Structures are given as C-alpha cells and as structure tokens.
C-alpha cells in the first residue's frame, strides 16, 4: 500500500493567499493544521480546514509551542514548560482544531506534534507521555503521527492510540534515526531525486511521509514523490 503524504499547513497567510496552500492540499492525503499557536492565527486555522474540506483531505491538529518568534522550533521542555503544561497546551490546541474541523464539516482524523515538541517527544518519553495525555483529554479516538521507530511511537501505542509511523522527504536523519537539527547545514533536503531515494529507504517501516509546506520547493517535492 502506498504511503500517505502529509503536509504541515495553516502556518502562513501569504501561502494561503497565493493559492499555493490549496495546491499543496491537492497533492497530499493528510493535512496537519496549525492551531494558531506556533504560527498563523485562529482564522487561518479555520480557513485551512475549509480548504482541506474542498480538497477532500483528512485533517489533523498540529499543536506546538506558542512561540511564533521561533516558529515553535525552539526546545522549551524543562525551560518554560513542564509535562503538565505541555499536556494542557496540547489539550487546548487540539480542542480548538477539533472545533474548527467541525465548522468545516470534517472530523479530526489525527494529531501530529509540531517542531521542537515533536523532536523532544521523539527522544524523551516524558514529553511523549504529556502529549498523549493532552490529546486523550479531548480526542481519544484520533490517530497519532510519530517519527518512525522513535520513543514517541512506543509511548503513543502504550497510551492506547493507533500510530501512523512517519518519515520525512525533506529532512535528513542522524545515525540514531532522529532528525538532524535545522540549525545544522545539512538538515534539509531540497533535491527531489534525493527525497525520492530517502523515501525508498524508509518506506518499509513508514505509514506516512511528510513534506513541510514552508520548504521553498514544497510543490516540486510533492510532485516528485507522488506514487
């Protein structure tokens, strides 16, 4: 079975207003919709849910740290947030996404943590547990997306969720199977051929593949990996 393609969306008004967000939606099966915290705003979340309905795409919540200055990509666990605070922010953002989806005539299909929250959960079971707790408070019947073969996958499963294991077309991996930090020069993949080769290597243990909508050539990558 072909892997589902997922994209992080609802993060940029310019992307939406240019029409590129809808183009991206038409090339994926799952939309991870920003909840107005790490980027965008609540109106953009609602608009994105409407566009996903138009495109026939399943929608998920994409909760992240409310740190738009750093696009939610600055690690904050143990600094500004403990496990309890993470569970609360996840519950609040997922509940809002759930309401926005209903307004668009959709059911929330999945949850995928964003940015630093995702990367922390991939390596730290306490963060993953907090995310699972937050989701369970408001949407216990959704799928969870997690980095394939990482700590978070096992935690989400133990917490009773069905997990879609995720790989990345536009990010490089460390030897430990985690994502190379974005502040390193080799973190991103821009070449569609290299993206395809990476997916071929990873597809044996992946259910879904991600392309980030803020990658400058996201559309080119998406067209290249259609299968």
Q: Give the termini separation.
A: 10 Å
What is the string of SSEs from the N terminus onward?
EHHEHEHEHHEHEHEH
Biggest β-sheet: strands ordered side by side in the sheet: 1-2-3-4-5-6-7
Count, helices: 9
Total separate domains: 1
- At CATH level 2, the architecture is Alpha-Beta Barrel
The biggest beta sheet is recorded as: 7 strands, parallel, barrel
β-strand percent reads: 15-25%
Estimate the mean pLDDT confidence: 96
Unreliable spans are: none
CATH T-level topology = TIM Barrel
Q: Quick one: CATH superfamily?
A: Glycoside hydrolase/deacetylase
Rg, nearest Å: 16 Å
- Counting helices, strands and paired strands, the structural category is alpha/beta
Number of E-type strands? 7
Q: Assign an overall shape.
A: globular
> What is the CATH class designation?
Alpha Beta
Helix content: 40-55%
Description:
With 227 residues, this protein is of the alpha/beta class. It has one domain (4-225): Glycoside hydrolase/deacetylase (TIM Barrel), CATH 3.20.20. The chain is built from nine helices and seven strands, in the order βααβαβαβααβαβαβα. The chain has helices at 13-17, 20-25, 42-55, 83-103, 115-123, 125-138, 151-158, 192-202, 218-225, and strands at 4-9, 30-34, 58-62, 108-111, 143-147, 163-168, 208-212. A seven-stranded parallel beta barrel has the order 1-2-3-4-5-6-7, surrounded by six helices. Helix 6 (125-138) packs across helix 7. It is globular. It starts with a strand and ends with a helix. The model has no long low-confidence stretch (mean pLDDT 96).
Name its key features:
single chain; TIM Barrel; 227 residues; 9 helices; globular
